[in-house]
Structures are given as structure tokens and as C-alpha cells.
Fold:
Amino acid sequence: MARTIPTFVCQACGAAASKWAGRCGDCGAWNTMAQEGAAAPGSVLSASRKSKSPAAIMESLEAREEERARFSSGVSEFDRVIGGGFIPGSAILVGGDPGIGKSTLLLQIAASVASSGRAAVYVSGEEATQQLRLRAARLGVDKSTARIAAETNVAAIFAALDGAAPPDLLVIDSIQTLWSDTIDSGPGTVSQVRASAQALVSYAKKRGSAVILVGHVTKDGQIAGPKVVEHMVDTVLYFDGDNAQNFRLLRSVKNRFGPAHEIGVFEMRGDGLQEVVNPSELFLSGREVSAPGTAVFAGVEGSRPLLVEIQALVAASPFAAPRRAAVGWDSTRLSMILAVLDARCGVRLAQHDVYLNVAGGLRISEPAADLAVAAALVSAISGEALPSDCIYFGEVSLSGAVRQVGHMPLRLKEAQKLGFTAAVIPAPGDETRTLPKMNLTRLKTLGDLEPDMMAAARAKKREERRER
Structure:
């Protein structure tokens, strides 16, 4: 029998050490070293090295006609995010906060795949089968032919799957609850998560099943467990949203079979998650067109154009160090835009509290939102509303120049479809020749943005200084 020696493994990065330490020497995380059992050197490892494995099968790159193509999940927003549908033999990792709707979405997908005539299996390690039936009845999919199971032992799951043909779709909810009797540690530890994920990914590749693994997330929003799990799988998806809002966003951060950073939008209702065909209308609903400090930004998430409202509030600060707060946008980039407005445009906000919000809870990361943020800030400080039928996009450099961004025709076509007739865009480029009906304002520098509004903002600042 193999001798077992104690090993301390970091639950954040998977680094192993022979002694406990308060801080991981690899990733620097505190209080993450947990004791796990490991086989002594020279026992299991040496035995595996001595065993003779069959030689790997070498194949050509030429495609085969018998290879199966993608098949749809039955949910078009999910298909969009993963690149057009499931690929047989692929592994997908889905992470998200507790209660965000991961299990609801995947149960709907499993039922939809089963209704199309394919085999779907949903294995839950967190809920009993009766709980799954109650949820299916609430979602209206209780008549589906999808098979369900409540099991956490990896060997027991494989034993049940071997009794029939491999399913087209296998859902594991969640990977942190699985355990293997070949690993001497509890469920959820780095060793168990890594071993269970490796076994399931190997099953997907050998049997041709599409496997979806649900992963818990940490307080930082990252998928819990070793980072190597994200390298094992083919696609990594994050399911997030604001609990105060009804919509949910499914975002891909890795995809070997399609574009990354694609998003799908869902709305949480009493009967489950419903697809949002036109998310721009959702994010712009309830917009106050005559309110100062609001600008409409035409963005692109993956291959999808998305129009959102950016809101800014500027108020005189009673403190020596004014506050800067941004929700849905990078606070560091907000400070940069404020510095450019001060140094290049003469709009001084050093004595004001500045609050920025992306309406609807959406988070924007592309620099093309710089111009819309600057327009909202200028509108807020001047007290004058921007035109309600105008959109803004463009990257702002430290010199104050407005730089060109990608997908300009796509952004403008989406805005035109929603009834917008004007756009403020960067000066370089001629991609908009096919849209003559839109009133385009091309900016070379940020100082050209609404000159009358800029002048009013500077005059207001001078008046405030005189009053002080």
C-alpha cells in the first residue's frame, strides 16, 4: 500500500509545499494553504511510469466527413456566446455568483437539447432529484426526456454513463462538489477539483459528448479552484448580473471554437430565463432624454453592437479631496478623462465630486467609451442636456485627440436602427459613407466637443471661483 505523506496545497493557485505557511510562496495569497494527502514518491508515480501505455494515434489535419458538426442548444443567446452551438467532445466551464441563475439556464438548455431528439444528462451535486423536478416544473420543462441524477462520486457518475450510449450533452453542477476516491482529500480542494475536471474532460474527448461544468466563484469574481481547470476546458463563460436588475449577462472569456468576449443577454422571469433579442432597447428603456449628464454610447461586445446610457453627476465637494466614483467603468480611466478635460479643454473639475454610472448594471471595458464619458461630464457640469437623438463613441488620448475605433459601421447601423439620427465620432476614416441619412460630427480633438457647452462649462467654473 502506498505510504501517504501530508502535503499542503494552496487553494488559490494549486502550489504544493511540505510545510504549512500563512502565505503562499507562489501567488502570495494569505491563509490558503490546506492539508491534503499525497502518495509518497516512488510508489504510485513510479508504478505509473513502469506501466506500458498504448501508443498515441497519429492522424492528419484533413477533415473527415463522418465527424459530427455543431448542434444547437435551443437557446440562441447561448449559441451566440459559444460560437454557434455545441461541438461534440468539447468542455465548457460556466462560473457565476450564487443565485444568479446558472442552474436554471443549464436545466433549460438540457431540456431543450433533449426535446430536439438528442440525449442530455444533468448531474447535480448540490440538489436532490426531487428539487430538480420541482425546478423543472416551475420552468415548464418537466415533460422533457432529459435524464437527471444527484451524485458527487466521479466513479459512480461514469458507471451510470457507461450503461448506455454516451449522451450528446452532459451537465455537471458543480465541479467543486465532485470527489474521486483516488485522491485523499475532501471535495472542493484543489486536488479533487483538478482530478475531477481532468476525468470529465477526458471523457468528453473520448466519447464525443459536450460537457458543461459549473464552477463556483470567489469573492473576487474568479472561478474557484486551480487555474489549470480553465486551461483544460475549451470554453470559459461567466454568468453575471445585478441582483437588483432582472437581466443577466453570459460572457465568454475563452473560446477555442469561436470569438471570445461575446455576450448573451437574458431576462430573469418567474418561468425562468428568457432571451433578450435586442439588448440595446433594454438598456435604453426609461432613459430621460432631457436630463443633463447623460450620453448614449454605441459599443461593441464581441460581434454584437450594444447601445447603453452613460450617466454623470458633478457636484461641488465640501472636502479637500473630492470623491471619484465609477460604476460599470474603470475608475482609473475616469481620472484620465478628468485630467484631459482639465489640461486640454479648460473644464476644471478638481473641486467637484464626480460620479459615473453605466445604466442597467452593464460593465464597459473598451476605450471607445471615452468620448461618451467626456460628453456626459461636460453636460453635467454645464447643466445643459445633450441631443437626445445623438450617440457618441471614440477613444481620447492624453493629448486630447479623438482616435479612431473599430467597427464604426456596425455601431452606426445599430444606432440608426433604434432611431438615432446623429453621431459624434472620430475624424479619421471614411467608413460611414454608406450611411448618408445620419448627421455625423467628426472630432479631431476633445476641445471640439460641443463648443457652446464647453464654453458654458468654463464660464460656470469662472463664476464659481469669483463667488469663492
User: Anything to note?
Assistant: The mean pLDDT is 86. Residues 190-207 form the longest helix (18 residues).
